[in-house]
Amino acid sequence: MNDMDTILITGANRGIGLELAAQYAADGWRVLACCRHPERAEPLQRLHAATSGRLSIHGLEVTDNEAIQALARELDGQAIDILFNNAGVGGGEHQALGKVDVEDWLRTFRVNTIAPLKVAEAFLPHVGRSRQRIIATMGSVMGSLAENTSGGHYIYRSAKAAVHMVGRCLAVDLRAQGIISVLFHPGWVKTDMGGANAPVAPADSAAGLRRVLAGLRLEDSGRFFDYQGNERPW
Ligand SMILES: NC(=O)c1ccc[n+]([C@@H]2O[C@H](COP(=O)([O-])OP(=O)(O)OC[C@H]3O[C@@H](n4cnc5c(N)ncnc54)[C@H](OP(=O)(O)O)[C@@H]3O)[C@@H](O)[C@H]2O)c1
Fold this sequence. Notes:
Layout: E1 6-9, H1 15-26, E2 30-35, H2 42-50, E3 55-59, H3 65-74, E4 82-85, H4 102-128, E5 134-138, H5 154-174, E6 180-185, H6 202-214, E7 224-226
Parallel strand pairs: 1-2, 1-4, 2-3, 4-5, 5-6, 6-7
Helix pairs in contact: 1-6, 3-4, 4-5
The chain binds NADP nicotinamide-adenine-dinucleotide phosphate (NAP).
């Protein structure tokens, strides 16, 4: 077990993932910041330098199973308190009824739905040997069946609805090991994905998510929370 609390974050080079990485690093955590192109991840490189390497940068394309396995091997024997499946894509321009692009749909499923499970599978031993034992996965209210009153967005909505089920299955399957699996809606956040009109700043979303994570107990496993700690309907 490591002495320091440790978080692994996918898609940590921009948006909410970057903000989570910065805040956990500032709080003294060891941060395993994963991104597709470490050589281009300048904000992460600055954080790496500013934290004496407490934040490390790891190349990870989340749809590449070999890359996931290689990173899991590289980190073999280490403890990961929070595995945060954050990386995600919006699904592209062709998501309206009658216009849905099948290739975009498949690509989006690989990133938003399948990758979180494959990442969780690979890092189960690391999470299992940690103190906090949390797998957090970014869902969305866009993936909520109960909250869908406006339709459209077939690709993104279905991929997020499906990852909600992945996280829920993980909660059931891992309960006996004392591992918590939760789904999050981060708010409508001002990032490349959320756009300029989004009302929530990445810093506020990340701070809220951190607060919820810090208060989690095993009884919370399998639940869907927003960044303010409200439980959201599936
Ligand atoms: N923003 C919102 O309002 C909102 C609302 C609900 C849910 N969410 C969810 O929150 C998460 C973060 O969203 P965001 O707003 O921060 O989005 P963002 O600014 O677009 O950032 C997305 C991140 O995911 C990474 N990523 C995408 N595909 C990847 C892949 N194949 N392998 C590895 N990394 C990949 C991106 O890396 P690159 O730079 O390499 O592309 C980037 O770091 C997503 O899961 C999103 O669906 C966001």
